Amino acid sequence: MAFARTVGRPPGRLPAMAGRTDHEIGLETLALNGVEDGERVWPRFAGALAAALAERAAAMRADGRAFPGAREALATLAQMDGVVQSVLTGNLQPNAATKLGAFGLEGHLDLAVGAYGSDDRRRAALVAVARSRFAAVHAAEPEETVLVGDTPLDVAAGRAAGARVVGVATGPHGRDELIAAGADPTLADLRDTRAVLDAVLAERAVAS
């Protein structure tokens, strides 16, 4: 829908998407479908993507669901002193807000210190963006950055930026793939809130 609104025809080919930024996916989609000068077209395409997703918010609420345990984990971590939760995502900022809002997950997240696919097309660069925003808001560098991700690209981005990465096999990649990419620890899913806390707060437990 967004491609057709931008280009005037539906796309014939789509790229791989898991773990990549919307900017990166968008540019490749344009290139695969014969659109030249993708960077020039991208701002219009990005706006169309955000508008199209916002139009589908009600359908997402009706047909989709949050992963089991996600809401409980966020709520519990929000009660921990010194923990600030946000998102580091390849989604454009308005799309991330739409998706989180559709499933009621935004309440325990500080989206102002997050990093998004609209900030940089390179996923690894987003960790620095999030840290910079945290420092600007809290007047201090974060003591530790923990990235929770479900793709090898998530793991690689976090490791490249010096973050600790917790792998969660709720996407298309199994625990073995996430471990091979460097995630430590890994979880099968988010159902066990205690296990999620132990994984995210592991370094704090060691320090204490």
Task: Give an overview in words.
- This protein is mainly α and 208 residues long.
- It folds into 2 domains: 2-55, no CATH class; 65-207, HAD superfamily/HAD-like (Rossmann fold, 3-Layer(aba) Sandwich).
- 50% of the residues lie in helices and 5% in strands.
- It contains 11 helices and 3 strands, in the order αααααααβαβαβαα.
- The chain has helices spanning 2-7, 22-32, 38-55, 57-63, 70-78, 93-102, 125-138, 152-160, 175-181, 193-200, 202-207; strands spanning 146-149, 164-168, 186-187.
- It has a 3-stranded parallel sheet, sandwiched between helices.
- Helix 9 links the parallel strand 2 and strand 3.
- Helix 4 (57-63) crosses helix 6 and helix 8 (152-160) packs parallel to helix 9 (175-181).
- The longest helix has 18 residues, at 38-55.
- The mean pLDDT is 91.
